[in-house]
Every structure is written in C-alpha cells, then in structure tokens.
Amino acid sequence: MFKFDFQVEADDTPFSIKEGFNDSKSPAAYADKESFKEWYESEEIKPSKEILENIDVCKLNALSKDYKGVSLCYMVSGFLLEDIKNNADDVTDLKKAEENHSDLIPAVYEGGAKIWECTEDLLMYFAENIPTLEWNDKYVLDLGCGSGLLGIYAFNNGSNVTFHDYNKDVLEKITIPNVLLNTREESDENEEDIYNFDKLVEKTRYFSGDWEKWCSSPICDQLYDVIVTSETIYNPENQQKLLNCLHTKLKADGKIYVAAKTYYFGVGGGLRQFEQLIEKDKRFTFKSLWLSTEGVNREIIELRKIN
Fold it and tell me: What one GO molecular function would you report for this record (predicted)?
C-alpha cells in the first residue's frame, strides 16, 4: 500500500478545510431532517457562452496549482461565497447555506462550494501514481464534483469528463467557470486571453440532482472508465444510493477512487462503515491505496466490480 503524508497549509492555499460539520448538524438533527426531505430532480446543465463575459473576473480571483506538471486553475472559494452573499438578486441554495453559515443543509445544499481536504489527497495521489497518458480519451465521472478539481485534472490530461453535483448552482457558478479557466490557450504577452469554449462543450457534460434520480433517468446513459468521488460518504442514509450509482455508471473493467475520512463527526458516516456496506452489498471488491493518520484519519480506496 502506497503511503505519503501530505499536509495542507491554510495560509498557502484557498482550501477551506473542515474536520467535521457544524454543531447544528448533530446525528439527531440530521436524522430528523432525513424523515421529510425531498431530493432534487436530475437535470443536465448546458454551459452558456455568457460565462465568457465574466471569465476575466474569475481569472482575477483564481489560483493555479501544479501537480507534477499538470496545472489546475480554479477560483478561490472565499471570493465566490462573498460575491453570492452580497448579490441581493441571487436567491440560490448557495446563498441560503452561506447566510446560515452552514456547510450542509440536507437535500438543499450538500457542501459543493468548499474544496474539502480529501480532494487534495486524491489529486496528489493521481500525480504521484498514475501516468498522465492513462487519462487520455478515458470517460471519467466526477461524482459530487463541487469545484470540479478532480474532473479538471482528468480533463487537462485528455479525458472526457462528466461533472455531477447535487446543486445546479454549484455547477453554474463554480464548476463550469473553473473548467473554462483550464481551456486558456497560449497567447502573446500583450494579447487578450482566449478560452476554448468549444472544447468545454465537446469534452465535458454537467448534471445536477439526486444520484438515484440521475441514474434512473434517460438523460445520461454513458458508462465510465474511471469514477472519482471525494467526501461523499458522510451521510449513512445516502451510502446505498451512492453505491448503486457507482455500480450503474461504471464499466465492467472500470475503477472507482473514493477519498474520505475514517469518521465524520456530527453526521455519523465514515469509511469503515462504508466498507461494511460494500461487503454486505457484494458487488464490488475494494482495497486501500493511501492513508494519512495526521488529525482525523483520511484514506483513499479503490473499488472494482465483481464480474
């Protein structure tokens, strides 16, 4: 098993690292909300050329980070949330969450504006262990994509990527602009930056809504060579739904990479509990690829179908 200890320095990166969730999301409170909530329907989000009008603002509030020669450009989440909060005409799930100082509102907002710690773990693991050529022409699903960094890593290495997030707002205001930032073409120093919108349309797709409703919908019948997902197992009530989605969307010889904490304080989910569900489900094999024991334990596991 490969192991490295990667530490995120809060002062050097825009990552918003959370070791758990707010006190308001205690297991009892969370379970109480589970009993009556209604999950969003699935829909495809089509990128509009209107995002090109604001791309310079996105660029000014973006950072670039290099992963062993693979550069990712993405917006600083603090700027995004502040802008959404201050926009009086913007009534969105993102705004509701920010006004409530919450990282999670069950069935309303599922944390997509934050870049969670395990996403960085998985990016580092890919850069250290998977040759970039292995991503070329693969079909990749970034499930629970949020800012889309995992999918963008694959996209920048030649993959065709589907981005799925529960919230339409997240895809429109964060994911799609981030992907577009990574289509910038080389230009002379004094020339205006050019972004390849056609490449974005050709190589990526975007879907929102509930996992179960998406998998049962005819709007996307694509199967994937690789599925990547980070910090999506925190709610035990949704883990079977996640496992069903992974099985439905993965090719017979495909791989799934799951990055998560061993335990999520306040909501009850965790990796050991998820592994017990996998064993009971009997449709996947799994193995541990990487482990960090600093702070709350974090881990990366790989799943494959039992054919």
Answer: methyltransferase activity
Whole-structure pTM value: 0.83
* 3-class secondary structure, 81: helix
Please answer whether residues 170 and 80 qualify as being in contact, where contact means their C-beta atoms are separated by less than 8 angstroms. Answer: no
Output helix, strand, coil percentages for the chain, rounded to the nearest 5.
40, 25, 40
Torsion over CA: 240, 242, 245, 249 (sign) = negative
Dump pLDDT digits (tens) for 14-51.
333 333 333 333 333 444 444 446 878 999 999 999 99
3-class secondary structure per residue, 25-43:
HCHHHHHHHHCCCCCCCCE
How many whole angstroms separate alpha carbon 203 and alpha carbon 218? 20
**What is the spatial distance between Cα 244 and Cα 278, in angstroms, rounded to a whole number?**
10
Angle at 7 between CA 127 and CA 159, to 5 degrees: 25
* Average pLDDT score over residue span 56-74: 93
Mean pLDDT of all residues belonging to the chain? 82
